[in-house]
Amino acid sequence: IGCSVINKSGEHLGIISDVWIMPANDVWVMQTEKGEIPLPVIDDVILSTDILNKTITVYMMEGLLDLARQNAKEEDEY
Fold first, then answer.
1. Which of 71, 74, 73, 61 is nearest to 13 (CA)?
2. Is 39 exposed, middle or buried (0-12, 13-18, 19+ CB in 10 A)?
3. CA 5 to CA 16: how far, in whole Å?
4. DSSP string over 48-71
5. 68 Cβ contact list (under 8 Å, min separation 6)
6. pLDDT-based confidence at residue 61 (cuts at 50, 70, 90)
């Protein structure tokens, strides 16, 4: 929690705000300006972790960013 999340190009995407321990694989929750995005802790998504510098490099699979947009819309409706 508190690690910066970047993509392969070095662009800052968000900050890890929560960890969900799940049966199949853990999920790290990334807080962004548009809302929270669940990141499955699998090799296809989490490319590298640099604990010393508190940086996680990820590949944003298609559809993950849309989850934050959906959450933001749902919150705005209430």
1. 61
2. buried
3. 7
4. EEETTTTEEEE---TTHHHHHHHH
5. 32, 34, 35, 36, 37
6. confident
Main-chain phi, psi angles of 42, to 5 degrees:
-135, 160
One-letter amino acid identity for 22? M
pLDDT tens-digit series, residues 13-31:
999 999 999 999 999 999 9
Tokens read off for 6: 């970047």
Amino acid residing at 24: A
Is the confidence at residue 65, as pLDDT, over 90?
Answer: no
What span, in angstroms and rounded, lies between the C-alpha atoms of 30 and 10? 16
